[in-house]
Amino acid sequence: MPGWAHRCEQVFTGSLADIELVKRIAMQVQADLAIIGPEGPLAAGYVDALGSCGVPAFGPSRKLAQIESSKSWARHLLDRHGIPGNPEYRVFETNHDLQRYMEELGSFVVKPDGLTGGKGVQVFGEHLHSIDEAVEYAEAVLHKLQKVQVEERLEGEEFSLQTITDGETVIHCPLVQDHKRAFDGDQGPNTGGMGSYSFADFSLPFLEKADVNQAQLINERVIDALSRETAEPYRGVLYGGFMATGSGVRLIEYNARFGDPEALNVLPLLDTDFVELCLATSRGELARVDRAFASRATVCKYVVPAAYPDASPPGVRIATPSVDAGLEDLRWFWAACNEDDEGVSLTSSRSGAFVGIGDSVAEAYVVAERAAVELEQRNPGKVRHRADVGSSDVIAKRIAHMNSLRGACG
Ligand SMILES: Nc1ncnc2c1ncn2[C@@H]1O[C@H](COP(=O)(O)OP(=O)(O)O)[C@@H](O)[C@H]1O
Ligand SMILES: [Mg+2]
């Protein structure tokens, strides 16, 4: 059996779409708690189904998960409740006016209105090189999903705010900045995320206090609006993807779950027992939980197959990292590999991630970078990582970028 299945106590296989099977399994193992990680099962209603047979689940119900599964629903929700943060946008159900609106915006982004595994959004100037090409792409999306969103292209620095909530109480996680591009210097195609960092003060050095407050307030107001609109409490994580611009914070999108890699930055800092936290969230008792993250910085670095994000030949064996489990400041998280009696082999996806923890990002960087380099050296030509994630150079560039945008607006 592939992946890490044989490390599990019990493994069940079946279709993820088969909710009845999931319910039967939950009953059979007498589950105390289900933690629903990915967006697909949330959008399919796993939380509702498990709840109906008495199993508490960490994650929003199907209705509430629309905040991620429909980007237009999320934008409209903000508008209906007067919550700031939306860029200029329009949702199209036919191609009427599509071209005119694109021309009016000049620089824009085309977004399918559904889950696309992070592969649907196309940015004018990056993926789309002419209005004709953009119209063609938007029409293809319309044909497939009957809805397409076109929005103003924002310029700024992206960051993520994950807020854990039971619908009433909120716990904001430290802010994180992810690096989506495959290669150093933010070059190459987008990936699932090559690495990310967080600061010991839980903010990011290119943000002003007002930006942090605004992002937190937007998440809080959205949680409140969601609960009021659906008459159901939002329980789980609300992940806001934001862009700090020269004129304040804008919302890029919402996810209804922890981010990958962002979860790897924040969860090792959690002072509370994670399972207790999830249980309390699913029961609406988050107020009783001691909420604290250690005031430390993190740098997460994914190690990926050499050809990633392109396909790799299957079955390439790798020497595994030698992380001393007692080493508090370095963590290793396995990802998309297969393990069998002979060891570990690569797939075409990200192999695993190191997380360095330190009193400063500079310290955390050294810990994560050293570990990633060592693993690369033990597997020459097989794996690689981004050396620049969390480096002082990159962070200085982010700060300079924001300063220039603020100067231009000020
Ligand atoms: N309005 C926008 N302006 C500029 N860039 C954007 C905008 N919307 C999305 N992007 C870029 O596209 C990426 C993916 O878009 P997002 O809405 O997060 O969709 P998904 O994560 O589902 O692919 C973002 O991380 C950001 O880099
Ligand atoms: Mg996104």
Describe the structure.
The protein has helices at 19-28, 39-44, 46-52, 62-69, 71-80, 98-105, 131-145, 209-230, 262-266, 274-283, 361-378, 392-409, and strands spanning 34-35, 57-58, 89-92, 108-112, 122-123, 148-152, 157-165, 170-172, 177-183, 187-198, 236-245, 248-255, 297-305, 317-318, 330-334, 337-340, 343-346, 352-358, 383-384. The protein is of the alpha+beta class and 410 residues long. The chain has 3 domains: 15-58, 3-Layer(aba) Sandwich (Rossmann fold), CATH 3.40.50.20; 88-152, ATP-grasp fold, A domain (Dna Ligase, domain 1), CATH 3.30.1490.20; 157-394, ATP-grasp fold, B domain (D-amino Acid Aminotransferase, Chain A, domain 1), CATH 3.30.470.20. The strands form 5 sheets. Strands 9, 10, 13, 15, 18 and 19 form a 6-stranded antiparallel beta sheet that branches. A 4-stranded antiparallel beta sheet has the order 3-6-4-5, with helices on both faces. Bound molecules: adenosine-5'-diphosphate and magnesium ion (MG). Residues 241, 253 line the site of magnesium ion.
